[in-house]
Amino acid sequence: MTATETHCPYCALQCGMTLIPEIPRVKLEPLGFPVNRGGLCAKGFTATDLLDHKDRLLTPLVREVPGDRRCPLREATWHEAFTLVIEAIRRSQQDYGPDSVGAFGGGGLTNEKAYALGKFVRVALRSAAVDYNGRFCMSSAATAANRSLGVDRGLPFPIADVAGAKTLLLVGANPADAMPPSMQYLDAGRAAGAKHIVVDPRRTSTVAGAYLHLQPLPGTDLALANGLLHIAIRENLIDEVYIRERTTGFDAVHAATNAYWPERVERMTGVPEVRLRETVRLLATAGPAMILTARGAEQHSNGTDTAQAYLNLALALGLVGRPFAGYGTITGQGNGQGGREHGQKADQLPGYRRLDDPAARAHVAGVWGIDPDELPRPGLSAYEMLDRLGTPGGVRVLLVLASNIAVSAPNTNRVRDRLRALDFLVVSDIFRSETAELADVVLPTAQWAEEEGTMTNLEGRVIRRRRALPPPPDVRTDLQMLTELAGRLGRGEYFTDDPRAVFEELRRASAGGIADYAGISYERIDAEQGVFWPCPSEDHPGTPRLFTDGFPTSTGKAMFHRVEHRDPAELPDREFPYVLTTGRNMQQYQSGTQTRRVKALTVALPEPRAEIHPDLGRRHGIADGDLVELRSRRGAAVLRARFSDGIRPDTVFAPFHWPGVNALTNPALDPHSRMPAFKVCAVSIALFERG
Ligand code: SF4
């Protein structure tokens, strides 16, 4: 049997693994790929369970009575399923116009599929309605990085550089649970004397090895960053030469931080002044320092400005572009980085180009062989599109790829209502997800080990997903589905289902853009263990480290932006007195469509747990292990309580991998990135049932 080197289907670390298709089961071995160096987490080790899982979708499904979602789903032929989809698209566009049909993509799609989906919506559907679930996880940090540094690449350096930082500030990041093999770099850094500071309202597994743990009230991370910068300025710890030579806009930021004196920041955040001062001294004086943010800092109604505040701090300390130093954001989804580069975003074209930029429109239209005027204008962001489904002017026929929005979107009661209000819902997935259960047509798709393509990991390293075995006989790839649908819509000549051909076109479409893949080929990826973008030509080595010589901004300098603390969109009150913050468990991934079906993972963690402080529990007559009901203004969820004295007594933590928790979360959007405020909403808690 032939061994195939490929990558884990889950998170953005994209650990390397070898698959050997032995009978009766595919054998999996960790690979010494540069990011994981032989490490895998429990999710990766059990990923082959997905391939022959008994719940696997093996044939298209349609409703017993087409159009009547009260009827059960039944098996159908591809021809029947496609015919229903095409009829629904034609009917809707005839009656309500092109934008009445839209698509919702995902950060797990390969680069080829993300590219093809954006093109399918613009060229085959001629619609503006496309966005994806990365809007829910990366858009705030991406927006801040784009406006400040001129480019958004999660880590602008290889992850191995983390081991060389002498001080590491992790804000709202829990890599020990989210991507355990990455901890080898943190462990190596600490073994060499580095000091790590974790900012998190919970004492997470990542905190266990940290030198300092700062526990701010959720929603005050921006104030914390401005307070750190205030101290750095007052103690003459900023890098004035760097600020003068490599940045613009510092004076306005300097003026803004006057209001963030340590005593006030201590009152706002709950973090003692002495710890604020120690953090600044470590960042400024202990050697190369790195600041990494993740969703805990970013999923807020002020998430862009919060990410910006940490960027401001990194720039003022002269960290960005220096060896083993800088600012980065830890991408979560498997292709969260590539997924946001190739055009499945409402406002974007391939190459990380803007859809409202005439030059970008002309370039991409030229590659696609259409007139630039045929390209629609930017559409609505993910939650805004979902919120208007089935309403006048909203999308009425929706195609969902690689996303389980009935679980992962905020305010899911509302989102499920809107999905039910659609005239027609099509879902492509490998399992009958909660979103697929609401669909008119479900299309069974090939999965990771059955398909070819590329992914771009959290470092901006473009890697190959290689096919180790064929998909089941009646299962198709998403590229095959999109190509077939485009053909039936009369636009088949613009599409191909060959991933390599799609990638070659993607290279041309991205050429000259921010995320320039022009010099990257499948052959180079094979030969070089991945290639870092930007890589504008075949003789270019790729760019593992950004900003060493300057910034791709209009001035060539990084831009400070003045940012101010704003209260979260929803604050605790008498009725809902606590802050709910959501996050990850080590055993689960995203909405759990895949990992909730893996036995070893569910045995290790059978159900979600609401983490609360014992004092909070006692106040409400709740004991460890009881079932509790959490309520917010939007819904309720019942979870088992887990006591922890490592969480703030005013805060409740719940994982988002199971249905229910996002019924509580607040869809208030960040004004810049349109990202929802997953990380703060006001809740009440009450005993539901004794454990
Ligand atoms: Fe897969 Fe991420 Fe675990 Fe690596 S860390 S094995 S990529 S889930």
TrEMBL record:
Keywords: 4Fe-4S, Iron, Iron-sulfur, Metal-binding
Full protein name: Molybdopterin oxidoreductase family protein
UniProt source species: Planosporangium thailandense
The keyword Metal-binding belongs to this UniProt entry's keyword annotation: yes
Coiled coil feature spans: none
KW Repeat (keyword) present: no
Ranges for domain 4Fe-4S Mo/W bis-MGD-type: 1-53
SMART domains according to UniProt: Molybdop_Fe4S4
